[in-house]
């Protein structure tokens, strides 16, 4: 087996990669010429960084994105027009890259077609602002930082099949801590302590896994949390799969949540909430999940649970973080399919 990053691995990659024109600034064809299954754009750029033997991250940024700093974020892309031009369009259009190679599709169904199109226009060039606000990433006390995650078994299998471990998009969605292929826990990668305070151009390596106390560890926990995390991961993937053609109507979603509370006996048909029952139920569902740092903002006490329930059922609709919507689906409906069937049949 050839170790990823070794001289032998680089040679194999250089020989087997497609040659894409036009050439880069170094006047050589792009050495990484095709996507791996479910690969993110950050992963492909990181492979390019290794294969091109770039010593500085800015060299890779300049070659792929035409800027010494912009383009290196692992979660939100930038300067995609330049990337498409530099790769001759052979890795897809801007829209194809956004929809198939980033985590942005998880956020789009909770916005609107107009906002989605505006965000795509934004990532075509150098972003002057942040997408954290238009995508509601900073709501409800959740962090806007997306941890990089990997599956140990995927790493082993990818190295065996492709001679390199890489970043799978399905692992990177917020709320996903179970590998959908192997049903194993995902491990968080430690962030660089350098000046950029990011991940840099990097590929998954087991020695970069965060300590178990700082990430999600399922080895010795109750089965309930594993089940909840599996449901959360499935719901996240299903929500992202709605992009680019389906957008959730917020008022319809609120009515769907209300109807479910009635069906569960936690809300009367006249609208009166059985708050004590709701609070107890919310905290029972949230407690196992809050041991995952990314989910720490879920309700932790009676006051927070009450505020969450009121926000969930309030009209006019209040915007919520995507993780709070996913938790609502898991809490009330147990799984995505039950929620989606209820949403589609919900009337005014």
Task: Provide a descriptive summary of the structure in words.
- This protein has 348 residues and is mainly alpha-helical.
- Among the domains are: 113 residues, no CATH class; 98 residues, no CATH class.
- Helices cover 44% and strands 1% of the residues.
- The protein is built from 14 helices and two strands, in the order ααααααβααβαααααα.
- Helix 9 packs across helix 13, helix 11 packs across helix 12 and helix 13 packs across helix 14.
- The radius of gyration is 21 Å and the shape is globular.
- It starts with 6 loop residues before the first helix and ends with a helix.
- It comes from Trinickia dabaoshanensis.
How are the SSEs placed, and which strands pair?
Elements: H1 7-16, H2 41-51, H3 57-65, H4 80-86, H5 94-101, H6 113-124, E1 149-150, H7 152-162, H8 169-172, E2 187-188, H9 223-240, H10 250-263, H11 275-289, H12 302-313, H13 322-333, H14 336-345
Please provide a brief summary of the model.
This protein has helices spanning 7-16, 41-51, 57-65, 80-86, 94-101, 113-124, 152-162, 169-172, 223-240, 250-263, 275-289, 302-313, 322-333, 336-345; strands at residues 149-150, 187-188.
């Amino acid at each position: 087996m050839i170790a990823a990053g070794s001289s032998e691995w680089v040679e194999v990659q250089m020989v087997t990669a497609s040659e894409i024109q036009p050439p880069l600034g170094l006047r050589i064809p792009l050495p990484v010429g095709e996507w791996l299954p479910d690969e993110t754009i950050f992963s492909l750029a990181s492979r390019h960084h290794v294969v091109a033997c770039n010593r500085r991250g800015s060299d890779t940024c300049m070659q792929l994105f035409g800027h010494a700093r912009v383009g290196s974020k692992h979660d939100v892309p930038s300067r995609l027009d330049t990337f498409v031009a530099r790769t001759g369009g052979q890795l897809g259009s801007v829209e194809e890259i956004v929809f198939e190679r980033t985590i942005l599709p998880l956020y789009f169904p909770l916005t609107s077609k107009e906002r989605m199109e505006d965000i795509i226009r934004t990532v075509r060039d150098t972003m002057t602002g942040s997408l954290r606000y238009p995508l509601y990433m900073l709501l409800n006390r959740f962090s806007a930082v997306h941890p990089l995650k990997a599956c140990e078994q995927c790493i082993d299998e990818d190295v065996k099949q492709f001679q390199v471990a890489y970043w799978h998009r399905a692992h990177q969605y917020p709320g996903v801590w179970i590998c959908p292929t192997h049903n194993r826990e995902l491990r968080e990668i430690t962030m660089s302590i350098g000046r950029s305070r990011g991940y840099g151009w990097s590929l998954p390596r087991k020695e970069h896994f965060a300590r178990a106390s700082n990430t999600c560890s399922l080895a010795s926990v109750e089965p309930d949390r594993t089940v909840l995390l599996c449901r959360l991961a499935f719901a996240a993937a299903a929500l992202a799969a709605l992009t680019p053609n389906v957008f959730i109507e917020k008022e319809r979603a609120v009515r769907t949540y209300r109807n479910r509370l009635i069906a569960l006996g936690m809300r009367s048909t006249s609208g009166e909430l059985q708050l004590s029952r709701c609070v107890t139920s919310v905290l029972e569902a949230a407690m196992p999940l809050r041991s995952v740092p990314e989910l720490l903002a879920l309700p932790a006490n009676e006051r927070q649970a009450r505020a969450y329930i009121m926000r969930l059922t309030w009209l006019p609709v209040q915007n919520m973080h995507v993780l709070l919507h996913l938790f609502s689906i898991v809490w009330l409906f147990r799984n995505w399919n039950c929620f989606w069937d209820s949403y589609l049949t919900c009337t005014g």
